[in-house]
Design goal:
Structural class: mainly alpha
Strand content: under 5%
Number of strands: 0
Number of helices: 9
Shape: flat
Oligomer: single chain
Low-confidence stretches: none
Length: 176
């Protein structure tokens, strides 16, 4: 009796599995802008049937959201520019101004996204000093604390010695 019910519930178990899988994909795509789903999708793109479908879905979504960028990408792929920098320069010169602008904006955005994931603290600080990367929230709070401490120290120093000059100059007269 129980065994026969199990066989009837197989479609329910399959649907339940697919719903859980969809939920996992939804959660992974929301975390850090899809950072954890990208490798999974890249792997799925290698599967022949799935890869073609995913590529077609991606292209149609891009055509709806940014048609200039979609046409630019199609032209660049046709020219084989994705593999060769010289072909890329030649293909970029063949694009219309709107397509070129859309391509450059997308490339800048992708570069900014890639640059924000710098894991080495020394490189990240170097980029911050050069103004190429925005500070993380953790670094911003650290800077605020340092500024508060500095301000508190200046107030304490001023309270101790009210006649001292600010800007680090001493109060002594210079000999002539």
């Amino acid at each position: 009796m129980i065994a026969s019910i199990f066989w009837y519930l197989i479609p329910v178990w399959i649907l339940l599995f697919l719903v859980v899988l969809l939920g996992i994909f939804a959660i992974l795509s929301r975390i850090r802008g899809g950072r954890y789903i990208r490798p999974i999708v890249a792997w799925l793109m290698k599967v022949p049937l799935l890869g073609r479908r995913l590529k077609r879905i991606s292209e149609s979504a891009m055509e709806r959201s940014n048609p200039l960028l979609a046409s630019a990408i199609k032209k660049l792929e046709r020219a084989g520019a994705m593999r060769d920098p010289q072909r890329m320069q030649k293909a970029l010169s063949m694009l219309s101004s709107g397509e070129r602008r859309a391509w450059m904006e997308a490339a800048d955005q992708q570069q900014q996204n890639a640059g924000s994931d710098v894991s080495n603290r020394q490189i990240r600080r170097q980029l911050e000093r050069q103004g190429l990367q925005q500070k993380s929230a953790k670094d911003k709070t650290k800077d605020k604390r340092k500024a508060k401490k500095k301000k508190k120290g200046e107030k304490e120093e001023e309270r101790r010695n009210p006649h001292a000059r600010k800007h680090g100059k001493s109060n002594r007269r210079r000999g002539r």
